[in-house]
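Example for tutorial group B:
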C-alpha cells in the first residue's frame, strides 16, 4: 500500500515538473502591424516565433513596432511603418504578483521620440503612423479576454499626447476598426 502511495506521488511530481517545461517551448505569435504598401498603410498580420509563456496578446502588443521581414519580389524587406518611423512600444509590468495586467487593464507606452530623432525612414505623416500603430496596439490587446482596457501613455513631443488615454478593447475583439490608413 505504501509503495502504491509513493508511486502515485512520484508520478504526480514527474507530471507536474514535465508540464512546467512546456513554458519554454516554441509558439507562433500573430502580431498585427502597420505595413507600408505604396500609397496606403495596411494593417497586416505578421508571425513571430516566441519561447515566452506570457499571454500572446501581451506579447503581440509589445511586438507591434518590431522590425519584420516580408517577402516581396526577390528579397525580404522590413515594411513595418511604425518601426521605420522610429516608434517603440512597451508594456508596463507591475510587481511580480501582478504580472502585466493591473486588474483588467494593460498599461502600454508608445514612445514617439524616434519621430523627432531625424533617423526615420518613413514618408508618412506622423499622425497617420501613430493612428495606425494605435489601431494595431488595440487590436493586439483585444486578443486576450483578460484585457478589457488599455491605458496608453505617449512619451515624446507634447503634440502627440492627445493620442494617449484609457480605451476599451471591446470594439476591437473582432479585429481592427480600420484596416487602411492614407
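The residue assignment follows.
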Amino acid at each position: 500500500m505504501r509503495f502504491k502511495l509513493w508511486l502515485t506521488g512520484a508520478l504526480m511530481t514527474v507530471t507536474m515538473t514535465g508540464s512546467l517545461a512546456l513554458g519554454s517551448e516554441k509558439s507562433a505569435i500573430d502580431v498585427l502591424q502597420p505595413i507600408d504598401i505604396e500609397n496606403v498603410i495596411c494593417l497586416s498580420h505578421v508571425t513571430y516565433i516566441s519561447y515566452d509563456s506570457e499571454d500572446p496578446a501581451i506579447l503581440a502588443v509589445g511586438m507591434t513596432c518590431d522590425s519584420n521581414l516580408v517577402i516581396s519580389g526577390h528579397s525580404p524587406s522590413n515594411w513595418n511603418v511604425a518601426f521605420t518611423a522610429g516608434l517603440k512600444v512597451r508594456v508596463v509590468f507591475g510587481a511580480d504578483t501582478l504580472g502585466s495586467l493591473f486588474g483588467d487593464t494593460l498599461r502600454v507606452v508608445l514612445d514617439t521620440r524616434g519621430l523627432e530623432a531625424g533617423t526615420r525612414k518613413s514618408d508618412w505623416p506622423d499622425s497617420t503612423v501613430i493612428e495606425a500603430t494605435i489601431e494595431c496596439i488595440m487590436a493586439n490587446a483585444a486578443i486576450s479576454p483578460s484585457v478589457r482596457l488599455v491605458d496608453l501613455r505617449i512619451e515624446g513631443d507634447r503634440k502627440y499626447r492627445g493620442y494617449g488615454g484609457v480605451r476599451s478593447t471591446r470594439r476591437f475583439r473582432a479585429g481592427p476598426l480600420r484596416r487602411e490608413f492614407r
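The first strand starts at residue 27 and ends at 37. Compare this with the pattern of hydrophobic and polar residues in the output above.
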